[in-house]
């Protein structure tokens, strides 16, 4: 199973379209019986949408990410990097961060993850819970990454600087734990 950027972006666009249709139907639902039915149909269309991206929730993907089998880990790293926004996308990103933290990543994979985490510092609004990004950073941070996060922590933009300080704190705590 290969999940590429095109697949992730198509899923994001289609779910956004279906969410907007549901929101529109919701505003109209009390006006007539047919509007109520249209709202139900829109809700069912959103709920029933299927995408290969959702395979990242599977037990097979979990094992593939943890063990580095197939393209699962590569797909997980790409998903974290792209930070798509759609219904429940943050929950999936949190899960993938958790699995990547537990994995034995190669140097190239670590580099990709750390690049993604630097990007996440300035991402507004956040995708998923930022604490998962911090935990992942704590696990894989090297000296170069830590120095870069320290530089960003002095950023004048309070959002970015504050997030960098939180990540830096997680990195330092993780180092203390590991001894």
Descriptive notes:
There is one protein chain. With 179 residues, the protein is mainly α. It has one domain. The protein has nine helices and no strands. The protein has helices at residues 5-28, 33-47, 59-67, 72-82, 89-102, 107-122, 130-140, 143-152, 158-178. The protein is globular, with a radius of gyration of 19 Å. The mean pLDDT is 93.
**Coarse shape:** globular
Low-confidence stretches: none
Overall structural domain count: 1
Rg measurement, Å: 19 Å
How do the helices and strands line up, and which of them pair or pack?
Blueprint: H1 5-28, H2 33-47, H3 59-67, H4 72-82, H5 89-102, H6 107-122, H7 130-140, H8 143-152, H9 158-178
Question: What would a concise description of this structure say?
Answer:
With 179 residues, the chain is mainly α. It has helices at residues 5-28, 33-47, 59-67, 72-82, 89-102, 107-122, 130-140, 143-152, 158-178.
Relevant terms:
73% helix, globular, 179 residues, single chain, 9 helices, mainly alpha
């Amino acid at each position: 199973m290969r999940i590429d950027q095109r697949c992730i972006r198509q899923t994001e666009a289609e779910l956004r379209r279906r969410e907007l249709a549901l929101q529109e139907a919701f505003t109209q639902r009390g006006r007539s019986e047919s509007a109520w039915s249209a709202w139900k149909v829109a809700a069912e269309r959103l709920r029933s949408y299927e995408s290969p991206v959702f395979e990242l929730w599977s037990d097979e993907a979990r094992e593939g990410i943890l063990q580095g089998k197939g393209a699962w880990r590569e797909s997980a790293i790409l998903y974290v990097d792209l930070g798509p926004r759609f219904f429940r996308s943050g929950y999936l990103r949190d899960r993938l961060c958790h699995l990547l933290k537990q994995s034995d990543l190669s140097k190239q994979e670590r580099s990709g993850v750390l690049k993604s985490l630097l990007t996440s510092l300035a991402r507004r609004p956040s995708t998923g819970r930022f604490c998962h990004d911090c935990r992942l950073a704590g696990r894989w941070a090297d000296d170069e990454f830590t120095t870069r996060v320290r530089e960003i922590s002095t950023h004048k933009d309070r959002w970015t600087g504050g997030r960098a300080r939180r990540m830096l704190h997680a990195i330092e705590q993780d180092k203390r734990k590991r001894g």
